[in-house]
Each structure stands twice: as C-alpha cells, then as structure tokens.
Write a structure and sequence with these properties.
By secondary structure, the chain is an alpha+beta fold. The chain folds into two domains: about 5-85, F0F1 ATP synthase delta/epsilon subunit, N-terminal (ATP Synthase, domain 1), CATH 2.60.15.10; about 90-135, Up-down Bundle (Single alpha-helices involved in coiled-coils or other helix-helix interfaces). Helix content is about 25%, strand content about 45%.
C-alpha cells in the first residue's frame, strides 16, 4: 500500500539528524505521545525524553532516543528541533551505562548538595538511550 509522505527535518544543536520524506513520525509529547501523518493539521508541540519513531519514504523504521525539544507541523512539512536525537546504533552503551550508574548513585546519596531533579532527569535520559540501543 502506498503511503503519502511529508517533508521531515530532525535538527539538534550539533547536526541535521534526518532530512528527507517520511510517512509517519511518532514522538513523546509532554502532554502525551502523538503521531504525525500526511495532511496533519498544523500545530506546535513540545517533546520530552523518550523514543521518537520515523517511518521513512522507503518504509524503514528508524528509532531515535531524544531528550526533549519542539515539533512544528505545517503544510506537510515537519520540523523537529531536538536537544538530542540518536539512533540506537549511534549510542555508546558504555557511556550510557556509566551515566545511568552515576545518576543512580546520586539519587541514593543523602548529600544535601545533590540536585535530585537533575539526577532523576539524567537517569531518565540514560535509561531511554539504553532502551533505544537495545532495539538496534
């Protein structure tokens, strides 16, 4: 079955991650996950830590670990401005595990100088990266 495509760009501060046509984008919105298909109504949303899934024009499924950002949809053009967006095969497993271990240690610490919210977010990011890498 032929699926209509839309233009998609996924951009991080460091690089253009994806710039091509896609038939769907699923993202972890801060108010709940959402999916974008051809002819989607215009909107702007924020995204949070989670998996961002793209089905490209050739039918390939791409899964990215993202840590937040913005999505804008207008006239079959979608732009994602993400803090990070990494394919599973791009993720350094040792680095992600080390980050998770550090965050867990901080969360267990009774040191009043530890920013618990920052440690919690770090753990969420590292667990998400490990989950996406496991699917690669």
């Amino acid at each position: 079955m032929y699926e209509k495509a839309f233009k998609l760009q996924i951009i991080t501060p460091g690089r253009v991650v994806f710039q091509d046509e896609a038939t769907s984008l699923s993202a972890p919105g801060t108010q709940g996950g959402f999916q974008i298909l051809h002819s989607h109504a215009p909107f702007i949303s924020t995204i949070e830590i989670g998996e961002m899934k793209v089905k490209d024009k050739n039918g390939r499924d791409l899964v990215y670990a993202t840590s937040g950002g913005f999505v804008e949809v207008k006239a079959n053009e979608v732009v994602v401005l993400a803090e990070t967006a990494e394919l599973g095969r791009e993720i350094d497993l040792q680095r992600a595990k080390a980050s998770n271990d550090r965050a867990a240690q901080r969360l267990r610490s009774h040191d009043s100088g530890i920013d618990l919210e920052r440690a919690r977010l770090s753990m969420m990011r590292s667990l998400n990266r490990l989950r996406v890498a496991a699917k690669a």
